[in-house]
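Summary of Year 1 activities. Much of the first year was spent building the evaluation harness for sequence design. The harness presents a backbone, in tokenized form, and records the residue chosen at every position. We chose the following record to illustrate the format because it has been used consistently in internal testing since the harness was completed.
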């Protein structure tokens, strides 16, 4: 048995290798194209194009000229590669060192950390621009109404950053007591939902329906609806 164990370990390693290689190959293929590198609140962005061609280190990467100004550390990036178990996208310097490594936190969205600077997000450019457009469409005056159409509160969604990817909300006077007690101060879009958050950490989640309205979930017999004014 003691002679068999090393053989089993060796066979296990051989069996695992193709799967890891396939994972790396799949991720490399998925990364080809244009991506946006940005701060979490997207106040600073950089558009980069991942290419399958070999570079001096890893694979070829092209960046827009504005990247160096927006995100100075990008000046050190000379290429990209996939490493680890095929689940890390690494932006590398000319000597092969990682400038920043990214791991996928949800489909098509990668997160990386630079010590002393903070978290950066890497996502498909089309998806990033779609999100930005959706955010722009949300900014402005809104009314909270009940299912019978009665307006119970008016509020303003702004693009003023409040930290942690959130933005400021201003509630107008004379709101329904339930809304006044909740007192939302921040908002964001997350997985297709509109999130309103209070200073106490409470969250109300709204989902868009077929009538271009946003309904509080879970739904109820007396629904609460957000309408753009």
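For this record, the design step produced the sequence shown next.
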């Amino acid at each position: 048995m003691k002679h068999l164990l090393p053989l089993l370990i060796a066979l296990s390693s051989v069996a695992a290798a193709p799967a890891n290689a396939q994972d790396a190959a799949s991720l490399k293929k998925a990364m080809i194209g244009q991506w946006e590198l940005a701060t979490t609140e997207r106040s600073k962005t950089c558009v980069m194009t991942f290419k399958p061609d070999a570079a001096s280190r890893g694979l070829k990467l092209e960046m827009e000229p504005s990247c160096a100004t927006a995100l100075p550390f990008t000046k050190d990036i000379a290429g990209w590669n996939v490493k680890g178990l095929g689940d890390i996208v690494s932006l590398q310097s000319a000597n092969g060192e990682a400038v920043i490594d990214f791991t996928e936190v949800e489909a098509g969205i990668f997160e990386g950390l630079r010590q002393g600077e903070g978290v950066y997000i890497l996502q498909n450019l089309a998806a990033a621009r779609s999100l930005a457009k959706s955010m722009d469409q949300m900014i402005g005056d809104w009314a909270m109404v009940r299912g019978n159409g009665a307006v119970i509160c008016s509020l303003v969604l702004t693009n003023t950053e409040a930290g942690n990817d959130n933005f400021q909300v201003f509630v107008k006077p004379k709101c329904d007591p339930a809304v006044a007690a909740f007192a939302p101060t921040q908002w964001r879009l997350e997985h297709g939902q509109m999130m309103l958050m209070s200073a106490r950490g409470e969250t109300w989640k709204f989902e868009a329906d077929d009538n271009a309205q946003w309904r509080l979930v879970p739904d109820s017999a007396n629904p609460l609806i957000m309408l753009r004014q």
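The mean pLDDT is 84. Quantitative recovery figures across the full test set are reported in Table 2.
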